[in-house]
Design a protein that fits this description.
6 helices; single chain; 2 domains
Length: 231
């Protein structure tokens, strides 16, 4: 008896499960069909909107293009003027660069210096006291301008053998100058030393050295005469 009920219960449960599964399968199929059909439905529903957007986009593109064209046309003259101005500026700048590269500086003329005359020498006043000293110094100047400098002494004095004639004469003048130097005992020490040095032997026959001695003695004559004028 229990076995009979059990079999019936099992059958009822099986039928119910199959019914439920069948319903679920049908629901799945129906849902799938609806989902599959959804894009088409949406396309159909949204087509007017899409067409409107496409038209709006096309109109905006056309309007924008027309606006740009009108703007370009209206400002064409100004753009051309600006372009020409820029081109002129570029050409001018390029020209200036080329001129700077090829530029050769024009030498600035140097004015010829105007010769300035040498100041007139102070008046030479040779007093009686200065005469012996000045006479000795003038002889030294004459030796500095000797026409045949360096000629060897040919006299009989053996101590002057091989000595140039100017230095032989200077040796003679030097002895006299040492005696006359007592006139300068109150003179500045530098002046006395310059006076005695004027009678030193010539160490060279070169004109430059002789001219230097002549110039130094020339200045010394003025200085000695000036001192002796107030001694």
């Amino acid at each position: 008896m229990l076995t009979s009920y059990t079999g019936e219960i099992h059958k009822l449960l099986t039928d119910r499960i199959q019914l439920n599964l069948g319903s679920t399968a049908q629901d799945v199929i129906l849902t799938r069909d609806r989902v599959t059909a959804l894009p088409k439905v949406l396309d159909d529903a949204l087509k007017p909107t899409k067409d409107g957007l496409d038209k709006l986009s096309t109109d905006m593109t056309l309007n924008l293009g027309q606006a740009v064209a009108r703007l370009q046309e209206a400002n064409a003259a100004a753009v051309n003027t600006a372009r020409e101005a820029l081109q002129r500026q570029a050409e001018l700048g390029f020209k200036q660069v080329l001129e700077a590269i090829n530029h050769k500086p024009v030498p600035v003329p140097v004015p010829t210096p105007v010769p300035v005359p040498a100041p007139a020498p102070a008046t030479l006043v040779v007093t009686a006291k200065a005469t012996p000293l000045v006479r000795l110094l003038v002889q030294v100047q004459a030796l500095a301008l000797d026409s045949s400098p360096g000629e060897i002494y040919s006299g009989k004095e053996p101590k002057y053998k091989g000595v140039i004639k100017e230095n032989v004469t200077l040796d003679y003048l030097r002895k006299i100058a040492e005696q006359e130097a007592t006139l300068l005992e109150k003179a500045p020490k530098a002046l006395l030393e310059r006076f005695l040095s004027a009678f030193a032997d010539f160490s060279s026959t070169e004109p430059g050295a002789r001219n230097q001695r002549f110039a130094e003695v020339h200045v010394l004559i003025y200085d000695v005469a000036a001192f002796m004028a107030h001694a």
